[in-house]
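Practice record 12: protein with 4'-phosphopantetheine.
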Amino acid sequence: MIKTAIYPGSFDPLTNGHLDIICRASKLFDKLIVAVGNNETKKPAFTVQERICLIEKAVNHTIKSYNVEVKHFDGLLADFAYKMGADCVIKGLRAMSDFEYEFQMALLNKSLNPDVETLFMMTNVSYSYVSSSAVKEIAKNGGNIDGLVPDSIKNDILKKLYSV
Ligand code: PNS
């Protein structure tokens, strides 16, 4: 039986921390769906289509995993997981500060769709301080985002965020 996992997030934009989780999770499942959603509490800098293109470009350049699909979802993650026939939701944890929120989300998602497990993957220590918000702030102010985002999409991110 095919095992499918969903890796959801805003990915506004994708960072090296996200790509590392995609790479590692894609080796554990037959199919990994990177699900691009909108966090109700945040106003995204990139459109959904832009975020999907950046993820696809970085995945194709870097990990060449043919079992990774990128999709947009609206509404509840638990409903999307049901529609996709997913067994599992993957979440990355960078620090204890991520845990409280993610723990609540995992329990809520479990109550909405008991068939789906949430698995937490620890970040690669090299990326524990990297976040999309930090990337946006640095890029908007003309700082160096080398090493924070995949090389293949660095210029696309700077072009969108840094206008002199
Ligand atoms: O990158 P983020 O901010 O962690 O991504 C958050 C996202 C989009 C994965 C999250 O907001 C989400 O799952 N939204 C869908 C709505 C939902 O199912 N919420 C959980 C129950 S309240």
